[in-house]
Amino acid sequence: MSSTRFNMSNLDFDEHRWLINIRRTVEEEVEDEREIPVSIFNVPKSLMSGNPDSYTPQVVALGPYHYFRPELYEMERYKLAATKMTKKQLQSEKFKQLVDQLVNLELRIRASYHKFLDFSHETLAWMMVVDGSFLLEILHVDAAKEGKVVLTRTPSKLSHLVGKGGRASGYNAILRDMVMLENQIPLFVIRKLAEVQLSSLEKADDTLRPMLTGLCNDLSPFKITEEIPVINVSKSAHLLDYLYHTIVPIVEESLEITDIEELVEAMEDKEEAHANQRNLKKIIKEIASKLNIKGPVHLIKRLLLSKPFKFVLKLPGRILSNLPGFSILKGPISQMFVFSQSKEAAKPEDGNGDGISDIEKPPLVEEIAVPSVSELSKSGVRFLPTNGNILTISFDVKTVTFYLPVVTLDMNTEVVLRNLVAYEASSASESLVFTRYTELMNGIIDNEEDVKLLREKGIIVNHLKSDEEAANLWNGMSKSIKLTKVPFLDKTIEDLNKYYNSRWKVKAKRMMKLYVYGSWPILTLLAAIVLLVLMGLQAFCSVYTCSKAFKIENITENQ
Prior knowledge:
Radius of gyration: 33 Å
Low-confidence stretches: 1-10, 253-264, 293-297, 332-365
Largest sheet: 3 strands, mixed
Strand content: 5-15%
Shape: elongated
């Protein structure tokens, strides 16, 4: 069969190689393949669109998804140097055996990836050797930096990247790329490299465990405590999976997926209330702009601005709707305003100019219903840090204390958080505990003032440029694939809301929104009637010179 090439999405497609790979995959069945679930995914587009740089490697490509990107070739010299060091350590014969073993593991490697890999078995095996050697070298150099030399090696060419000079720039850039979901290789490949070097899989796991734990200490925004159970290296899918299980504890409780429509409705109600207030203010301003003529209209203007009339405007809409005549006029005029609002909503916003309707635009970022840190603090809630993990989040109703784990924010945190959320959502995990935690933090943090309060309490350790940057980090984390209910976190949110809503200040504020802002249709109707009357009066006076007649009448009365 001749090799015919097609150009698909600007990539060379070798039909002959594709056919060979398909035949081998279908004909050669591996018993272990069913035991290897897919663990390396493409980041969902809904998450990728929010911040592509957090999911796309910027320095080094690991694995097949980004392997042939030209802008990442600069690190190839370091990867090849690590591979040569592995070959020197094993000698030529053992190194050849290593490559052959990875060729035999080809189907297991392919089974780990969600995307079909259009590579030959030899290309894939060499890719794993090169990338695995590089990762193992990074782990070794990082452990050596901490004084924990676990493998006997000659000085590495990667030492300057991990040393004090390159720590702030080069090494952190490599760390961020190493933790990205699309930039993973199966951990059993690294175990195989360590096994060949140490002549025992058990020794390989014992050697890798402290190295991986040290890497997690560098990456994790949370302090890794002894309460976290020892992660089984043999059961970890890749580096990101190992990091995930050091941060996120196993929750025994059953979780259920919540209906996103409830949250969307709540957001729509909130947006509608703000829109109604803006419409009412707009009409009032329009009335005021018309009240610039002299005569009796001037007196009406003074009447509208008087305290008694303002008091009438603040009456609940339910009372006004029961007045004689309002029940008849309410229906048709309300429909008129609803129609005008729907037409106005169909137009693009000022300054937008794209002509895209709200339906075509991406959905609004969801945020769980919980008061902000500032609001909770003003209502008497105390904030205290815990030394544990996410499971230590709680709200003590008796002492009115909100307990949160300490989280450290630095240049790597956003990439770590986003890829952990993406992995949790993509791996079909029912317990989206970490995603729910990020939603909680997004809910209670609205601005830099909230970050400042948590920083002063020792809950947030901020190594970013400012509190505003930290607030933007959390606010950008709210978009997720699906929203879930995590019982212990939802209980905390429920208790917080229950306490906050029981405060008299909050109740008074809600009453104002319910009876004043909530009665906007009646207030709008009243404002429209007043506007029509004034416009009619203005037209009448422009014809019959009411101001002159009114002036004569006043002179007669004075006499």
